[in-house]
Amino acid sequence: MDPYKYRPSSAFNSPFMTTNSGAPIWNNNNSLTVGTRGPILLEDYHLVEKLANFDRERIPERVVHARGASAKGFFEVTHDITHLTCADFLRSPGVQTPVIVRFSTVIHERGSPETLRDPRGFAVKFYTREGNFDMVGNNFPVFFIRDGMKFPDMVHALKPNPKSHIQENWRILDFFSHHPESLHMFTFLFDDIGIPQDYRHMEGSGVNTYTLINKAGKVNYVKFHWKPTCGVKSLLEDEAVKIGGTNHSHATQDLYDSIAAGNYPEWKLFIQTMDPDIEDRFDFDPVDVTKTWPEDIIPLQPVGRLVLNKNIDNFFAENEQLAFCPSLVVPGVHYSDDKLLQTRIFSYSDTQRHRLGPNYLQLPANAPKTAHHNNHHEGFMNFMHRDEEVNYFPSRYDLTRHAETYPIPPVVLTGKRDKVCIAKENNFKQPGDRYRSFTPERQERFVKRWVDALSDPRLTHEIRSIWVSYWNQADKSLGQKLASRLNVRPMM
Ligand code: HEM
C-alpha cells in the first residue's frame, strides 16, 4: 500500500482499536481518572475524540424527502432509441449502466412512518461514461404547482404547523385553495394509490418534461415513466394503520429483504416523446408539470429495464450522503422550459452544498465513476488527491482541452421580461377525466377522503366552498356529492 495514497476505508481496518489519527487505544472501557473514582482528566484524548465524534454524528436532514431507502443495481437498454438521443448510455440494446436508486416519502422527518398518504420519491442516479445522469422523479406523473416560486410556501403548508408541529389539513387546504392547478395531483394523492404498498410496487415518473437530442441536433420533448414488473399495489387506510402500527420502516425493510433474498425488484422504463413543432396543438401546455400527455395520442415507448440487485453497505454513506439533482444530465438529454424544472435545476445542488458541504460531489456515492477533471479546487472537506501544478485554464503547460461539442436545443428564445402564469392553464379537464376513469367504489373512497379532509373544523365555509367549486368544475357529479355531504354550495 502506498502510504501517501491511503484513504479511510474498512478495507484497511487494523486488528486493534485506534484513535482517528491511528494511535493504539489500550482501553476503550474506562475513562482516564485521578484514582479509581475520578474526576476525569481532560488529557484523555480518546474519550474527548469519541464524544466529539458522537456529538456530531447527525447531518441536517433533507428539507423534503428526508425519509428514504436506497439500493443499487443496473439499467439495461432493451430498445434502440438512437434516432431520438445521442446519450452514450442509451447507445444500443444490451448496454448496462450501474445505478443507485433512492425511494422516499416527502413531507415528514427522517424517522417517520412509511405508511402515510404522501407522494413517494423515485430518484435514479445513472453512473454513465459521460458523467452522472440523475432522474429525480416521483411515483405520480404530475405535480401540485407549476412554478417553483411557490414551492417553499407549498412545503411549509404541507409540513407540520410551526407552532404545534402537527400536520394539519386546514393549512394544506387553505394554501391549495389558491392553486387549482393542484387538482390533478390530488386525484393521485387522494386516490387509492396515495399510499403505495411498498417501494417495489409503485410506478415512477420523471414528472418534468425534458428534451432528447439526437446526433443531428433534432430535439424532442420527453417524459420518463417507470413501471414495476411486479405490478402496482397500494394500502387502504385500515391496512396502512395496521402495518404502520407494527413497523414504521416496513417499506425500507421490504426493499432490503427482497434484495437479500434474491427477489430483485425490476422496473421497465418507457418514454413519451413529442416534437416541439406540434406543442401548440394541445389544449394544455406540454411543459406544464400539472399535465399528463394522453397515452392514446402519445404512446409509451419501451427503452430499458432497471434491476436492483444489491443492497447498500452503509445507510449513512449511500443514503444520507446521497445527493440527486435534476440538473445532472448527460449529452443527448437536456432540460425544457418547464418553469418548475428550471427552479429545481438551481435548488438541489444549492441545498446539497449546505446539507453536505461544497465538495459533496466527491463523496463516493455522488462522484462520477468516469474520469473527470476541472479547476474547481479546495473548499471544506476536499479530500481529492491532486498533484498538478497548473490549476488554471488555458495553459501551454497543461494540455487539458475542451471536450467534443455535443448538440443542445437550438431554439431561438425571445420574449419580454415578465412574471405571469402560462396561457393554457386548463386546470380542471384532466382531473375530471381521471376521476371519471375510476370505478364507482374507487370514486366513493376518493369522495370520502375529501369529505374527511374538508371536515377539518378549522376550515372556513369559504375554503370548503372553493374546494367544492373546484371539484364541481372538474366533474359535476363529484362537486354535487361533496356539496351535499359537506352541506355547502360551490363558490363560483
Ligand atoms: C420547484 C420545485 C421543487 C423544488 C424547489 C424541490 C426541492 C427539493 C429539495 C431542496 C430537495 C432535497 C434535496 C437534498 O437535500 O438532497 C428535494 C428532494 C427531492 N425532490 Fe424535489 N423539489 C421540487 C420539486 C420536485 C418534483 C416535481 C419532484 C418530482 C419529480 C421532486 C422530487 C424529489 C425527490 C425524489 C427528492 C429526493 C431525492 C433523494 O432521494 O435524495 N421534487 N427537492
Bound molecules: protoporphyrin IX containing FE
Whole-angstrom Rg = 26 Å
Largest sheet: 10 strands, antiparallel
Terminal Cα span: 75 Å
Report the oligomer. Answer: single chain
* Count of strand segments: 10
H/E series: HEEEEHHHEEEHHEEHEHHHHH
Overall spatial form? globular
GO biological process, one term: hydrogen peroxide catabolic process
Subcellular location: Peroxisome
Protein name: Catalase
Keywords: Heme, Hydrogen peroxide, Iron, Metal-binding, Oxidoreductase, Peroxidase, Peroxisome
Structure, described:
With 492 residues, this protein is α+β, with helices and mostly antiparallel strands. Helix content is 26%, strand content 15%. It has twelve helices and ten strands. Strands 1, 2, 3, 4, 5, 6, 7, 8, 9 and 10 form a ten-stranded antiparallel beta sheet that branches. Strand 3 and strand 4 form a beta hairpin. Helix 4 runs parallel beside helix 9 and helix 11 (461-474) runs antiparallel to helix 12 (476-486). The protein is globular, with a radius of gyration of 26 Å. Protoporphyrin IX containing FE binds at residues 62-65, 68, 102, 104, 121, 123, 136-138, 143, 148, 151, 207-208, 322-324, 340, 343-344, 347-348, 351-352, 355.
